[in-house]
Specification:
- The protein is α+β, with helices and mostly antiparallel strands.
- The protein contains 14 helices and 13 strands.
- The protein has 2 domains: 150 residues, Gcn5-related N-acetyltransferase (GNAT) (Aminopeptidase, 3-Layer(aba) Sandwich); 168 residues, Gcn5-related N-acetyltransferase (GNAT) (Aminopeptidase, 3-Layer(aba) Sandwich), CATH 3.40.630.
- The protein has a 13-stranded mixed beta sheet, sandwiched between helices.
């Protein structure tokens, strides 16, 4: 078990244990603000899964496996009392980018709560050495949470808007027959196409931060088996597909639709559209509306970013309701180097560095007399140069 003793000598940060679950669940109930609307539900589900599969998780952590880092939860303990917790997880297969999913601090510590949150973050920064970039998403109205992350080096990266499409709007969309002749199912052989679509659909800075690769769009056997079993037993609905453009031999659109785990009438959708094919928005949304049950009570949730004006314009046009605005923040391991002007890499001149490798003047005589008679490499170079000059003068 890794222990971390921060600046507060009474505070210890360590990995979560089974005995910590009741205390952390009570902290979740006492907290007034979370990262965004889905944070409380997500951390509750994570704790429930951790309690249910605790023995299996501990066993799997002894061996390398795809799910090894999906239950990284650390707690802050003060005098045998858990006063805070943090959950982090990698966002790509190479684990170069990690996401801070949740931070929970006991509200009974209003003054020390900021220090506890900062020390939990610092523990993750120093312990998870693989992470080159950290990201997180926070509601724009949660000023205290935003201030915590800004103090710890996080900078705004993008803004997201979450939309809800009412059941009657979905019924109107379902009346349109989608024109998608090249809609294909997803398998691991299409990972290259999906990777190219994901790359072209976001700005360069976001591509650099997320650092996704082809393997991030492949599914292992365990994930495919679990999804298939859930669909067979009727617990969840999950559908996805991509639009193939035969002339360019590229994927130009992708959709994923899954059912909410606790609210059966709520569905979450994900769209990725090539910037040159924005006419796919009504077609893909019509396809998603056709895939929903015909009960008439279904509601669809979608997200749009500030670099997707066509998507936001279309969602406003069909009467979707804005539910929440969030801010995506990122922190690089080099942010301190960039902030310090004296240590900026741009100020390092190669000529100045190389100049420091050669002596600028004759060496100072040593106290050991026999060292003064040994020619240095600089003296040898000078003698060779002078000898060549004298030979040239004699030839002239």
């Amino acid at each position: 078990m890794n222990l971390f003793v921060p600046e507060d000598n009474n505070l210890t940060i360590r990995s979560i244990q089974y005995k910590d679950l009741p205390t952390i669940e009570s902290l979740v109930d006492k907290c007034h603000q979370f990262h965004h609307s889905g944070s409380q539900l997500a951390i509750t589900q994570a704790l429930h899964s951790f309690r249910r599969w605790y023995s299996a998780i501990k066993l799997l952590n002894l061996f390398p496996n795809p799910a090894q880092h999906h239950f990284c939860i650390y707690v802050a303990q003060r005098e045998d009392e858990v006063v805070g917790a943090i959950k982090v997880a990698p966002t790509n297969s190479t684990r170069s980018t990690w996401q801070v999913e949740h931070i929970i601090v006991d509200p009974d510590y209003p003054v020390a709560g900021k220090r506890i949150g900062s020390q939990l973050l610092r523990y993750c920064f120093e312990t998870i050495w693989e992470a080159r970039t950290w990201i997180l998403e926070v509601n724009i109205h949660h000023k205290n949470i935003l201030a915590l992350y800004r103090r710890n080096g996080f900078q705004p990266l993008a803004q997201f808007t979450y939309w809800a499409i009412a059941p009657e709007k979905l019924q109107e969309l379902a009346q349109h027959e989608p024109q998608l002749p090249n809609l294909l199912p997803i398998n691991n052989a299409d990972a290259q196409l999906l990777y190219q679509l994901d790359t072209v659909s976001m700005p360069p800075l976001l591509r650099q931060v997320f650092d996704r690769h082809i393997n991030d769009f492949k599914r292992n056997l365990f994930e495919k088996t679990l999804t298939q079993l859930q669909q067979w037993f009727g617990k969840t609905l999950s559908k996805e597909g991509y639009v193939f453009e035969p002339q360019r031999k590229a994927a130009i659109g992708y959709f994923h639709l899954n059912q909410h785990q606790l609210q059966s009438e709520l569905y979450q959708g994900k769209l990725t559209v090539h910037p040159a094919y924005t006419w796919l928005y009504p077609e893909l949304l019509a396809k998603m509306a056709h895939s929903l049950p015909k009960t008439g009570d279904s509601k669809l949730l979608l997200a749009s970013a500030d670099y997707q004006p066509e998507r936001e314009e279309y969602l406003e046009q069909i009467g979707a309701e804005r539910m929440e605005h969030t801010l995506l923040l990122s922190r690089s391991v080099w942010h301190k180097l960039r902030e310090a002007p004296s240590a900026s890499l741009e100020r390092l001149q190669l000529s100045g560095v190389l100049q420091g490798l050669r002596p600028g003047r004759p060496p100072i005589p040593s106290r050991l007399p026999w060292l003064n008679f040994l020619p240095t490499s600089f003296d040898k170079e000078q003698q060779e140069t002078n000898g060549q000059a004298k030979q040239g003068e004699q030839r002239d």
